[in-house]
Amino acid sequence: MKSSSIIVSVIVGVVVLLTAWILGNAYRYKFKSTQTITVNGNAKKDFESDLVKWNATFSRKNFELSAASAQLATDRDLVRDFLVQQGIKVGEIRFEAVNIAKDFEYHTDGKGNGYNTFSGYTLSQTVSVESKDLNKVDNASREISTLISKGIELSSSTPNYYYSKLEDLKLELISQASKNAHQRADNIAKESNAGLGSLVKADLGIFQITGQNDNEEYSSGGAFNTTSRKKTANITVKASFLSN
To answer: How many CB atoms lie within 10 A of CB 43?
Structure first.
């Protein structure tokens, strides 16, 4: 009986030691496998817009609606002729619907009572241009004020610039930012005498477009500059890699 008890005790001891060894190695493996290196990869690129959108609004006022309409039609022809002379194609010119407003003037009589009187109709129309010939539209937007000397009441907006291959640019920068993140993580691993494992997580940052040399601040919702012809696109990728 005594020898049997000793054998049982030895077996129990061996089992305890074996269990402790297995749990210890499992813990070390778990600890090791959960070690990660997290970095932010970045990519940016300067580019120039290849599409411009611009508009101007002109108006006429008259007591007679038909007279105001006729004057606006004459102005419309002058505006179209001017743009064509600037080298803009007819197909790139679009006239929006005419807006009609009744105007009133407020008065007070000798007793202080207020009343309105009809002061005429104001008709306005917007002309918009969308073109890939940025230089011609830029010149037209600056020179169109010369039509004011012909009696046209006109206000011009600032041209807005866009890039037609924006999705391709995004994909290019995402690829570059991902490579940059992997390179940074690999450098950290080497400096720590460790190896870099597989990617476990990646989060894409906000895509930002700012004007070149404009010192614009990034926006939490993503900046999208349309006023600068030359722009800079920027994107970040936050990536986590296993370390072994």
So the answer is: 19
CA distance 75 to 155: 13
Number of helices followed by number of strands (H, E) in the chain: 4, 10
Report helix, strand or coil for 157: coil
Strand pairing report for 51-62 and 160-162 = antiparallel
Segment 58-96, tens digit of pLDDT: 999 999 999 999 999 999 999 999 999 999 999 999 999
Per-domain residue ranges of the chain: 31-48+165-243, 51-162
Contact (CB, 8 A) for 211 and 7 = no
**Per-residue pLDDT tens digits for 159-203:** 999 999 999 999 999 999 999 999 999 999 898 888 898 999 999
- CATH number 3.30.70.2970 given to 51-162: yes
Within 10 angstroms of residue 84's Cβ, the number of other Cβ atoms is 14
Q: Report the length, in residues, of the chain.
A: 244
Are 52 and 228 in contact by the 8 Å Cβ rule? The answer is no
Torsion of CA 8, 14, 16, 21, to 10 degrees: -170
With a pLDDT cut of 70, the percent of the chain lying above it is 86
- 9, pLDDT greater than 50: yes
**C-alpha closest to that of 151 among 67, 65, 60, 237:** 60
- Class of the CATH-defined domain 31-48+165-243: alpha beta
Q: Which two tokens stand for residue 188?
A: 């950290």
